[in-house]
Amino acid sequence: FSIPTDLPDPKRYDKTTWESMILKDYITFSQSLHVTRMDRAIAKGKEKVEGSPWIKEQGELGSVISALEELRTLAEAADDALEDLYRNLGIAYGRLKCPHPNQYPKVDCPGQTKMREMMKKFLAVTTKPKDQVATEQLVVDNPNSFINLG
Predict the structure, then answer these.
(1) 118 by DSSP, 3-state: which?
(2) Alpha-helix residue ranges (DSSP H) falling in the chain
(3) Which are the contacts of 110, defined by CB distance < 8 A and separation ≥ 6?
(4) b/e map of 25-52 (b: 16 or more CB within 10 Å)?
(5) Among 21, 14, 61, 68, which Cα is nearest to 42's?
(6) Helix/strand/coil for 125
């Protein structure tokens, strides 16, 4: 999966033009493909170590995150299709393996940090009522707690 280089300049069009609609549809469709890849990686199961919360497919998860980050760059430039993208990126980052989960937050866990950053951005742009974003709010409100989304 890669982003084509010949997409229209997002700042050139307002949100009602057909070019803008194509760009939004592209972002939405691509995001859906990558979230499906993440779901398949999760379905393959967790590591065999007793009590491990981490999925086996960390490499696939990393490539999904890279692809979603490329889409995020495109979506932020177009200022469109950001709500679900921020949430899905937060979920993906939350599933990244943390080297020392029992020592968090004394020992940094990049996945946890990025998960909170994305969920905070999601909450800033979402139009959903507060009762529907309680989990995301919990992630943001507890910066010193290790949260396992795996």
Answers:
(1) helix
(2) 18-43, 58-78, 83-94, 110-125, 134-141
(3) 93, 96
(4) ebbeebbeebbebbeebbeeeeeeeeee
(5) 61
(6) helix
pLDDT tens-place string over residues 85-121: 999 999 899 888 887 777 777 888 888 889 899 999 9
Q: Is the pLDDT of residue 26 over 60?
A: yes
Neighbour count for residue 18 (Cβ, 10 Å)? 9
The length of the chain, given as a count of residues: 150
Cα–Cα nearest to 46, from 130, 129, 148, 139: 148
Dihedrals φ, ψ of 107, to 5°? -105, 125
Q: Which two tokens stand for residue 124?
A: 């800033």
Structure tokens at 83: 């709500």
93/30 Cα distance (integer angstroms) = 18
Residue 39 amino acid letter? D
Give the predicted TM-score (pTM) of the model: 0.82
